[in-house]
Structures are given as structure tokens and as C-alpha cells.
Write a structure and sequence with these properties.
The complex is a heterodimer of chains A (494) and B (447).
Chain A lengths: L5 E6 L2 E6 L4 H7 L23 E4 L6 E2 L10 E3 L3 H16 L15 H9 L15 E3 L4 E4 L8 H8 L6 E4 L6 E4 L12 H5 L5 E3 L12 E6 L8 E6 L5 E6 L12 H5 L13 E2 L2 E2 L2 H13 L4 E6 L4 H14 L2 E5 L7 E3 L2 E3 L7 H8 L4 H11 L5 E5 L9 H9 L3 E5 L11 E6 L8 E4 L5 E4 L12 H12 L14
Parallel strand pairs in A: 1-5, 16-17, 16-20, 20-21, 21-22
Antiparallel strand pairs in A: 1-2, 3-4, 3-5, 6-7, 7-10, 8-9, 11-12, 12-13, 14-15, 14-22, 18-19, 23-24
Chain B lengths: L50 H6 L4 H6 L4 H11 L11 H6 L9 E7 L9 H7 L1 H14 L2 E8 L5 H15 L15 E6 L9 H8 L23 E5 H13 L1 H4 L10 E8 L5 E6 L4 H8 L8 E5 L8 E2 L10 H6 L8 E6 L4 H15 L5 H18 L5 H14 L7 H15 L1 H6 L4
Parallel strand pairs in B: 1-2, 1-4, 2-3, 5-9
Antiparallel strand pairs in B: 5-6, 7-8, 7-9
Helix pairs in contact in B: 5-6, 5-7, 6-9, 13-14, 13-16, 14-15, 14-16, 15-16
Classes of the chains: A alpha+beta (494), B alpha/beta (447).
């Protein structure tokens, strides 16, 4: 790869080397220098309309926008001096003169750039005595609501629908300080990436309908995770309240995986955490204790005969490793299966994978299963000869494909690892249900569709007495083939 | 313009004799050669807008002569003539043409700015309505010089007659092979597209106009890159005013020495001026550059209507005022007006007499800029609104003394901080009226 040309640049007295083509604002941010910004976003085109990123560049008579100015050799930038600070105060004052005093009822409070920059860069009192401009409130789409009066017309949302989703539902209407964001006639803001606009809105103008009025952000604990809903593995942050309930999920920046985006479906899937949960393990359909359930499973496995372990593409790599060990200990055959796929949804700036599993790559790397669907089909064909099948399911909704149904119907007995009640868990062949935990209550690793391995830790405390699949499988292995205590063979991640 | 005064004006006095020599002597024009209208020569002739009339008066001879000659020579001629943009900025035209990016592999465009919306300006309108062929001939030679094969002429949407006349002229030109393929058999192709606006002053800002031509909202673009490097559709583009393009025809026809007979070294030639307000003969005139402002008002304009001149807006509503007692010091050229802390601008001269309320006048202007701000950048979007609301209060006698300093801070936070200069265009007159007539603003304060 060709060497990228570097420029020698001085920012606030610091000598830096910056790749050619970098904007001043990116050069600052990359080197830990804060330059306030509203309309600038690293993954969107430059609009340069908010004017708060104005900085002083030596030799230039006027302040320059850091977002729209590429660095040049020997450029000297000052991000704070009297002129810059006054300009920022001026912009902050202008932004606030028509801004409604909505903080008490606005979702953005606590994570609002108007609040934050006002505190750092703004005036301590307002001087505007006139009547404020009032704009519309609108429901732009199924997931997004718009408060026009709060809008600073930074056009991040418009640029998002032009450049990232490519769906172009949004535009600016009217002119001047009457400008508002609106959907084009006949359209709704309903593309599968629509909720990213609420993330990138620096103020409380665009708001997630899902999160509306649910909680103040300072009452939420942010927890890092990855999204398990498809093979992209978007990095996420789940905001959890004091009652151990997820209030919302937002994307986390990862330039290799999801940039700063995620899809609406992945954001909104979390309610399944509390639906139809198996509170405890089941033996023959009745609630049981872990020791009893484990004993029942072990007995089934010890009876010998032909065993198989089916690992879904929702299992963590740790669980897959444990499944491999259990298979070795019992002579069971291992097969894989996956939630049904669909077409990839390709947008100009983002792709939602049609592979609705987080760890199909894990089946490949850990268990050598190149084609999970073929693997299931083969096993389903031979299932009548199987005495016991362990199914590591953990797929939300526990969908049962035709092949899986065939396998379940043909096998003699099933030991199921799953976290929710379903047609599958209630199937008469299922002798033992070892209640497990959802992704949000677990720790583990998925390998995404590009082969990137991503580990995660629990976002929620377990809401049931379910246990992580890898621990359950390890205990089964231990029971069947006891190994003298060894120092931590465990793949527990803190 | 300010509201009509309730009191009828006093009888007009005969034109005043020349004032005693001023302390600041304006630069003397190069010589005093008599001047006959050039660009406006045919405005009051019947059917002047038709091809038959135009060709009967030597029309398209310049295009016929110059298409096919070395393009660099045409550009050098325009450069050496010293012609400056007639739209308001006064940028040297030949120099702008020489900034055109070459070797980009992209087509070059000419975009003619006929958006004429600077309050007080009405000159391009007359060119479109009465001599559209002159503009088309100018577009042909200018496009040829800069190797452009597709030119846009952007007209403000409110021009109905101008559009009809220009469209008629363009169709005549096409029918006669002056526009289209292989013009004059010289192997040069040129297409001209007329683009109509829809009622926005900001579409007269050069990159706002380009955004509009592209089919978008008239949002000015971030500069750099400048249009000569990356303009419409991301291609090298020259933007010139209607009058500028027309002037090119006459410069090529008559030569540099002819053009430089009038005006000054830095402001050569002649210009259309639009006189309005409290004068006895408002209207369009074409006079040499560096004509004294007093001559414009008294000789051409029939003198002030009323007792005396209170102030003059010399170059469109964005231009800072010239106080009545300074009128005799001013000549209408770029340097003299700049030295008087104002600008030649679009050549729109508005005279205000002693009855005019300066607070009402600036309130009227602030309404305009607030209405016209595109709303892209924060200082202009919010600042123009704030200034209108402040002036509304002053206009109704409810100002605060503390507002006076506040206005200065608001304008300071608007100037030099935005994507285009509409914010400056609003801020400059605000500061000028307030600075020149502070007593009138104080009189409108309630505390």
C-alpha cells in the first residue's frame, strides 16, 4: 500500500504529523483536542453550517471552520483564543435564542450538545427578549418523532438519509429561521436504519419513539455489548435502569465493523429478554432444580447409544468449545444449525446481513462446520437412529425449521438448552430443558461474518435461575468424564 | 424602501450649485470623453428585443468575428480592459476567467447570474426585456473564450417578461445557427439553457445559484473550492453577471483603449446605475465610471425630491450609507467608495431625504434579510431574525438603551463567520445606520 503523505502541522503549539486530506477537526479529535461541533460527523459529508467549530489558522484573516478545512504543510491552528472563544459564545447565543426551554421534558437532557457546549463555551445568561420562532412537531416515521422548535437545522439527519441509507426521505423545508426538517410528500422515515437519525441528532429534535419519556439518561447505566441479531455484530451500548431492565440500545463506534451505525431491528429486539422466560430447568415438562435436571440429562447421555450435539449459530464460541469437549467425552456427533437467512439489505453506507445469526463463523472455526444448513439436513435424515440429541438453541423465538422439526420428530430424546418457553421446549421429545440465559445476560464471544472475533460481557443480571450454555455444557462434561481439578481451564471472561 | 412620509415633500429647489472643494479629493477621471449609452443604447427602441432589430444594428458581428480566434487572446483582452464584475462584487472579470481549472477532464460551464435581487437594482431586467440578443451574443463569445459548450442563464422567477423575451431571442438565435452545433461554421458547439428561479435572493449568491441550477435548494456552497475549480455539478464554472457579459461584447468590438477612455485606472469603463428614492427622475442610467455622485443625483436624477439629501445608499441595500453632507466627495468608482467605507456594489443608488426615518428604513431592510436568509448557518439564520425583531421594537418606540451595544455584538458575531456574505450584507447596513444616526435610535428607546 502506498505511503500516505504526512503534513507537519502545529495545533495549539503541539507539533503533529497528519495524513494529507485530513480535516483540521479530525486532526484535532484524533489527537485528543476537543473542537466542539454539531453538524460535523465523521461518517457524513461536510456541511459546515453550524459554525461552532471555527478555529484560528495563522495567516488567515478570518476564522475557518475546522470541519471544512483540510490540513496543509506547516499549518498552525489555534483552537482557543479570545477571537475563537467569542465566536463560539456567539454561535451558542444564536442557537439558543429561538430554542424552547424544553429541558425539563426533553429526552436529550443529559446527553445534549446544547447543554454541554453552553456550559463549556456559552454565555451565562440570555439576552434575547423577543418572541421565539415556533415550529412544527411531527411523527416522521414509525420510530422517530420530530420537535421542530428544538431543531438547529444541522442537516445531519438529511445527510444520513442521502448518504448512508440512500432512502432520501428527509429534506429541509421553508427558509431561514423557519427552516424545518420534513419528509417528502408521500414518504415516511421508515427505512431499516431510521433510528440512527435520533442518535446523530445533537439535540432533542429527533427522538426515538421507543425510548420517548422512558427514562432520564443519568438514571441509566451504559453497558457495552455487541448485537447478536445478525452476522455483522454491530458494537452496541445497552442503557440499563436500576431495575435491571434495558431501556434502549444504541450503536457503539467500531470502524471495522459497523462504523457508528446499527439497524432498527437490532435496536428494538431486546424486549424478548423478559418474554416467556424459563424460570428454572424442566424435567419432563415440570420445574426442577439444577442438580435434578443435570442428573436427568447425564443419565440420558450415559445410557449411551448414538448421541448427537446440535449447536446453533447463536451459541458463543466458548459454548461451542464446550460442546466439542462434551462430544469428545461422549463420542457424540456434532452438527450445526442456524436461524433462517434472508437477503442482505445493502445501503450505500451500511449493510444489514441476511444471516440472522451472530456466530455462523464460529461453527466454521471452532467446530469445522462449513455449512450449518447442510449439517442439519444430514443429521435430520439420520435422526431416527439417534438415541439422544442435545440441542444448544438460544435463538430468540426458538424458530423451528422443517429440517429441525424432522430431526426432533425422528430422534428418541432431546435435551434442550434454551432460555424461553416455546413450541420446541414443549415438544414431547424434549425430556430435559436446561434453562439458559439470553445474550444480554451472558458473556462470550461471537465471530462475525468477516471473521472478526468480538467478546462481550453481561449487560443484565440474570432474571431467572438459568445458566450460561458454556457452563452447563462444561458441567455435563465434568459429570460424564470427571477430570482431576486443573487450574483454570475455564473460558470465563470477566 | 422606507414608508412614504405622511407629510408631502416641500417644493423642489433648483439643482444646487457645485459644493466647495471637499477635504478628500476624489481621484480625477482619466479624461472627460463624452459618453453615449453602450449597453443600454437600444432600450427605448421599438422591437429592440428582436433578432431583426439586433442584426440591423450589427448584432452577432462580434461573435462571428471572434469565435474561432485564439481563446487566450480573448481572455487577455478582457483582462487588460480592466472590466470588473457588474453584479456587486466587482471582481476583475479576465482574472476570474484565468482562474478556471484546466485539465480536469470535466466540462467547463458558464453560469450567467440574472437573479437580480439586490434591493434597488433593476438594470439586468432591462437588458433581458429590451436587448436579450446582446446577452446571448455575450454568452457566445464568453463561452467560446473559456471553452464552455453549455452555458446557463439563471433568471429570478419573478422575471416574466424578461424570461419570455430572452427565450424568444434564444429561439431566434438557435433557428439562425448562432447557438447550437458548429456555430458560424467554426466547429464550436454551444448549448444555452435558461434556468428560472422561484423567489429567493440567496439564489443570486454565486454558489447558491449553482445549487439551484443543479436542482437543489439554493444553499451557498462552502468555499474553497471556488466555482472556477469546482462549481456546478462539481465542474469548473465561471459565474458572471448579465451586465458583465454584455460589456464583453462591446470591449471586443471596440477595443481596450476605447473602454479605458472612461473611468479610472482601477475602475475603467461605464456602468448601468439604478437611481431610486427621493429624486425627481428615478430610473436607469448608463454613465462612465467615476462619475461624481452629485452629478448622478442632480444632473441625471433631477435632484433630490425634498429639502436636502439626508443619506444615500450608493450600491444596493447592503452598502453602508453615505451621509448627505459627504455626497460631493464621492465619485462612483470602486476605489472611492471603498475609501468611504462603503461599496459600488450593484450600482443601485437610493436617495433618502430629510423626512426619512432611518430606524424605519433599517427595519425594512432587516425584514428583507431575515426573509431571505437561506437558514444554513447559525449566525445568519438566527442573527437576521434577531435583528428584525429588535428593529421592530425600535420602530415602535420600545427600544432599550442597552440594545444599542447588543446590536453591535450581534453584527460582530455575524460578520465573517458564515458560508456566504448575506450575513455581512445584513450586518453592514445595520451598523452603518446605527453609527451614522445614533440619535434617531436613541429617540426610539423607552429606557
Amino acid at each position: 500500500m502506498a505511503e500516505q503523505k504526512l503534513f507537519n502541522v502545529k495545533i495549539d503549539g503541539r507539533d503533529l504529523q497528519v495524513p494529507a486530506g485530513t480535516s483540521v477537526i479530525k486532526a484535532c479529535h484524533d489527537n485528543g483536542i476537543d473542537v466542539p461541533h454539531y453538524c460535523y460527523h465523521e461518517n457524513l459529508s461536510v456541511a459546515a453550517n453550524c459554525r461552532i467549530c471555527l478555529v484560528a489558522i495563522k495567516g488567515q484573516p478570518k476564522l475557518a471552520v475546522a470541519c471544512g478545512t483540510p490540513v496543509t504543510e506547516a499549518m498552525e491552528v489555534t483552537t482557543s483564543n479570545k477571537e475563537v472563544d467569542e465566536a463560539r459564545k456567539g454561535v451558542m447565543e444564536f442557537l439558543l435564542i429561538n430554542h424552547p426551554l424544553d429541558c425539563p421534558e426533553c429526552d436529550q437532557a443529559g446527553e445534549c450538545r446544547l447543554q454541554n457546549y453552553s456550559y463549556t463555551y456559552g454565555r451565562d445568561a440570555g439576552r434575547f427578549e423577543e418572541e421565539k420562532v415556533i415550529k412544527s412537531k411531527a411523527t416522521l416515521g414509525p420510530h422517530i418523532k420530530y420537535w421542530g422548535s428544538r431543531c438547529i437545522v444541522c442537516t445531519r439527519c438529511v445527510r444520513f438519509t442521502e448518504e448512508i441509507s440512500g432512502t432520501q426521505e428527509l429534506g429541509v423545508i421553508y427558509r431561514g429561521d423557519r427552516s424545518e426538517i420534513a419528509v417528502f410528500p408521500g414518504k415516511q422515515l421508515d427505512n431499516p436504519l431510521s433510528m440512527n437519525t435520533a442518535d446523530i441528532c445533537p439535540v432533542g429534535a429527533l427522538v426515538s419513539a421507543d425510548f420517548l419519556y422512558k427514562s432520564r439518561v443519568w438514571n441509566l447505566q451504559p453497558k457495552e455489548s455487541v448485537c447478536p441479531d445478525c452476522s455483522i455484530g454491530c458494537n452496541t451500548r445497552a442503557d440499563v435502569d436500576k431495575k435491571n431492565v434495558i431501556q434502549r440500545i444504541v450503536p457503539r463506534k467500531n470502524d471495522e465493523v459497523n462504523k457508528t451505525w446499527m439497524c432498527d431491528e437490532g435496536r428494538l429486539s431486546y424486549p424478548y429478554v423478559s418474554k416467556d422466560r424459563l424460570a428454572k430447568p424442566l424435567v419432563k415438562g415440570h420445574g426442577s432444580t439444577w442438580s435434578q435436571a443435570q442428573a436427568a440429562a447425564v443419565e440420558l447421555l450415559r445410557k449411551g447409544g448414538r448421541l448427537a450435539i446440535g449447536v446453533s449459530a447463536w451459541a458463543t464460541t466458548e459454548a461451542m468449545e464446550e460442546a466439542a469437549r462434551l462430544a469428545k467425552a461422549t463420542g457424540a456427533r456434532v452438527f450445526g444449525y442456524a436461524a433462517a437467512g434472508r437477503q442482505d439489505q445493502v445501503f450505500p453506507g451500511f449493510t444489514i446481513s441476511g444471516d440472522r445469526n451472530p456466530n455462523r463463523s464460529g461453527l466454521k472455526s471452532i467446530l469445522g462446520i462449513e455449512d450449518a444448513d447442510a449439517s442439519l439436513a444430514i443429521m435430520a435424515a439420520e435422526a431416527s437412529q439417534l438415541d439422544c440429541v442435545i440441542l444448544l438453541n438460544n435463538i430468540p423465538g426458538s424458530p423451528v425449521s422443517d429440517q429441525l422439526q424432522k430431526l426432533v420428530d425422528s430422534a428418541k430424546a432431546i435435551v434442550l438448552l434454551d432460555f424461553a418457553e416455546s413450541a420446541l421446549s414443549k415438544n414431547s421429545k424434549v425430556a430435559v430443558v436446561l434453562a439458559s440465559l439470553t445474550h444480554f445476560e451472558s458473556s462470550g464471544t461471537y465471530i462475525n461474518g468477516k471473521g472478526i472475533s468480538q467478546s462481550f460481557t453481561p449487560v443484565l443480571d440474570p432474571s431467572t435461575s438459568g445458566r450460561m450454555a458454556q457452563e452447563v455444557l462444561r458441567d455435563l462434561t465434568q459429570a460424564l468424564a470427571p477430570v482431576q481439578a486443573k487450574p483454570a481451564d475455564k473460558s470465563l471472561r470477566a | 424602501m422606507a414608508d412614504t412620509p405622511a407629510v408631502p415633500p416641500a417644493p423642489v429647489a433648483p439643482p444646487a450649485p457645485a459644493a466647495p472643494p471637499a477635504a478628500v479629493a476624489p481621484p480625477a477621471p482619466i479624461n472627460q470623453v463624452p459618453f453615449e449609452p453602450v449597453v443600454s443604447a437600444h432600450f427605448n427602441k421599438p422591437n429592440s428585443h428582436t433578432l431583426a432589430y439586433y442584426q440591423g444594428h450589427g448584432g452577432y458581428d462580434v461573435a462571428r468575428k471572434f469565435v474561432g480566434t485564439p481563446q487566450a487572446e480573448i481572455i487577455q483582452t478582457v483582462k487588460d480592459s480592466g472590466l470588473r464584475g457588474r453584479g456587486g462584487a466587482g471582481f476583475p472579470t479576465g482574472l476570474k476567467w484565468s482562474f478556471l481549472a484546466k485539465g480536469t477532464g470535466k466540462p467547463t460551464y458558464l453560469a450567467v447570474n440574472g437573479d437580480e435581487s439586490e434591493p434597488g437594482t433593476f438594470k439586468d431586467r432591462y437588458i433581458l426585456e429590451f436587448d436579450p440578443h446582446q446577452l446571448i451574443e455575450g454568452v457566445i463569445v464568453s463561452s467560446y473564450a473559456i471553452d464552455c459548450h453549455h452555458a446557463f442563464i439563471y433568471l429570478r422567477g419573478e422575471f416574466i417578461l424578461g424570461y419570455e423575451r430572452l427565450l424568444g431571442a434564444l429561439n431566434e438565435a438557435k433557428a439562425n445557427g448562432f447557438v447550437g452545433k458548429d456555430i458560424f461554421g467554426k466547429g464550436y458547439d454551444l448549448n444555452i439553457t435558461i434556468v428560472r428561479g422561484a423567489g429567493a435572493y440567496i439564489c443570486g449568491e454565486e454558489t447558491g445559484m449553482l445549487s439551484s441550477i443543479e436542482g437543489g435548494r439554493g444553499y451557498p456552497k462552502v468555499k474553497p473550492p471556488f466555482p472556477a475549480v469546482s462549481g456546478v455539478f462539481g465542474c469548473p464554472t465561471i459565474v458572471n453577471n448579465v451586465e458583465t457579459i454584455c460589456s464583453v461584447v462591446h470591449i471586443l468590438k471596440n477595443g481596450i483603449a476605447w473602454f479605458r477612455q472612461w473611468g479610472t485606472e482601477k475602475s475603467p469603463g461605464f456602468k448601468l446605475f439604478c437611481l431610486s428614492g427621493d429624486v425627481n427622475k428615478p430610473g436607469l442610467m448608463e454613465v462612465p465610471m467615476a462619475t461624481p455622485l452629485s452629478k448622478v443625483i442632480n444632473h441625471y436624477g433631477g435632484g433630490v425630491k425634498g429639502q436636502r439629501i439626508k443619506a444615500v445608499i450608493p450600491g444596493g441595500s447592503s452598502a453602508p450609507l453615505i451621509k448627505g453632507d459627504k455626497v460631493d466627495e464621492v465619485t462612483m468608482d470602486y476605489e472611492c467608495l471603498a475609501a468611504n467605507k462603503t461599496m459600488l456594489g450593484s450600482g443601485a443608488i437610493t436617495v433618502l431625504n430629510e423626512t426619512r426615518d432611518m430606524v424605519s428604513a433599517i427595519y425594512n431592510l432587516m425584514k428583507f434579510y431575515h426573509h431571505e436568509s437561506c437558514g444554513q448557518c447559525t449566525p445568519c439564520r438566527e442573527g437576521t431574525g434577531w435583528l428584525e425583531k429588535l428593529m421592530h421594537r425600535f420602530h415602535h418606540g420600545h427600544g432599550h438603551k442597552s440594545d444599542i451595544a447588543l446590536i453591535g455584538e450581534i453584527t460582530r458575531n455575524m460578520q465573517g463567520k458564515t458560508i456566504c456574505v448575506l450575513a455581512d450584507a445584513a450586518a453592514m447596513p445595520m451598523n452603518s445606520y446605527l453609527g451614522m444616526f445614533p440619535e434617531e435610535f436613541e429617540a426610539k428607546c423607552q429606557d
